[in-house]
Specification:
Layout: E1 2-9, H1 26-38, E2 45-46, E3 55-64, H2 71-81, E4 86-94, E5 106-115, E6 128-130, H3 136-143, E7 148-151, E8 166-177, E9 180-187, H4 194-207, H5 213-221, E10 236-242, H6 262-265
Parallel strand pairs: 3-10, 5-6
Antiparallel strand pairs: 1-3, 1-4, 2-3, 5-9, 5-10, 7-8, 8-9
Helix pairs in contact: 1-2, 3-4
Keywords: Isomerase, tRNA processing
Family: Belongs to the tRNA pseudouridine synthase TruA family.
Function: Formation of pseudouridine at positions 38, 39 and 40 in the anticodon stem and loop of transfer RNAs.
C-alpha cells in the first residue's frame, strides 16, 4: 500500500528536510516516528525539500508499507512519536504510481516579512525582517514580471540540482498587513533558494534601489551574481502542494498566516 501524508513543522530546530549524516532533519524525525509505530523500516519521499530554518504547514510525503492500518491510525500513531515541532495532519491511501514530488501540479510558498525599524522578538525564527521602508505597489509591479513560463537561473542557488531552471510561475502576489508583508508564490516547481532569492530582489526594488523592470532584466540575463543576496530562511513556509483531482487527495489548505498577527492586521 502507498500512503500520502500531509505534514506541518516548525523548521527552526532542524537542519532542513533532507536526511543527512548526523540526523536532526525533519525527514529523520518523521521516518523514526513512522518506524516506531509500524515496527518496521519506513522511507518517505517529500514534495519539497525545505532548507534549514524553513517551515511547512502543507508538506506532502508518501511511503510504501505492508502494514494494514486505518488512515486515522497512521495520523495518531505518527504524532504519538513525533517531536512537538512536527505533526501529521492527514493520511490518505493513494495509487501505486502516485509520487509526492513528481505528481504535484504546483507548490505554494509564502514568505512573511516584518517591515519596521526594529526587529521582532516574539516572532523570532518565524518571520524575516527588513528595516528600511518598502513600497508595496512598486514590489508588486516587479513581481508581475515573474508570471508565466520563465528561466529562473538568476534566482537559482549554485548547488541547485534541478534538471532545468525553467518553471511556470502561476502566482506572485504581495500583501501588507500593518508591519507584515506577505509574499505568495505558486509555481510548477521551485529551484533551490529560489523564493528567498526572489524576496531579496523584490525587497531591493521596494527600497528603491532598482525599478520594477530590473526583475525582467535579471530573468533575461540569467546570472545569479546580478540579483540581490539570498534572504533569511526564517520567514519561508511551504503552505500547500496541489495535485490534480484524479489522485483523490484532500484539497490543499492554506493557513491564513496574517491571523497569527492580530496586532499587525488590526485585529
Amino acid at each position: 500500500m502507498r500512503i500520502a501524508l500531509a505534514v506541518e513543522y516548525d523548521g527552526s530546530g532542524f537542519r532542513g528536510w533532507q536526511k543527512q549524516p548526523g540526523g536532526a532533519t525533519v525527514q529523520d524525525a518523521l521516518q523514526d516516528a513512522l518506524q516506531r509505530f509500524a515496527t518496521r523500516p519506513v522511507s518517505v519521499v517529500c514534495a519539497g525539500r525545505t532548507d534549514a530554518g524553513v517551515h511547512a504547514s502543507g508538506q506532502v510525503v508518501h511511503f510504501d508499507t505492508d502494514l494494514d492500518r486505518c488512515m486515522h491510525a497512521w495520523v495518531r500513531g505518527a504524532n504519538t512519536f513525533l517531536p512537538p515541532a512536527v505533526a501529521v495532519r492527514w493520511a490518505h491511501a493513494v495509487a501505486g504510481d502516485f509520487h509526492a514530488r513528481s505528481s504535484a501540479y504546483s507548490r505554494h510558498y509564502r514568505y512573511l516579512l516584518i517591515n519596521r525599524p526594529h526587529r521582532t522578538g516574539v516572532w523570532n525564527g518565524r518571520v524575516g525582517w527588513y528595516h528600511y521602508p518598502l513600497a508595496l505597489g512598486t514590489m508588486q509591479a516587479a513581481a508581475d514580471h515573474l508570471l508565466g513560463e520563465r528561466d529562473f537561473s538568476a534566482f537559482r542557488a549554485a548547488e541547485c540540482q534541478a534538471n532545468s531552471p525553467v518553471k511556470i510561475m502561476r502566482r506572485a502576489e504581495i500583501q501588507r498587513f500593518g508591519d507584515l508583508l506577505v509574499f505568495d508564490f505558486e509555481a510548477s516547481a521551485f529551484l533551490h533558494h529560489m523564493v528567498r532569492n526572489l524576496v531579496g530582489s523584490l525587497v531591493y526594488v521596494g527600497q528603491g534601489k532598482h525599478p520594477p523592470e530590473w526583475i525582467a532584466d535579471l530573468l533575461a540575463a540569467g546570472d545569479r551574481r546580478l540579483a540581490a543576496p539570498t534572504f533569511a530562511a526564517a520567514g519561508l513556509y511551504l503552505v500547500a502542494v496541489r495535485y490534480l483531482p484524479h489522485w483523490g487527495l484532500p484539497a490543499a489548505e492554506e493557513t491564513a498566516f496574517p491571523a497569527f498577527f492580530p496586532e499587525l492586521a488590526g485585529g
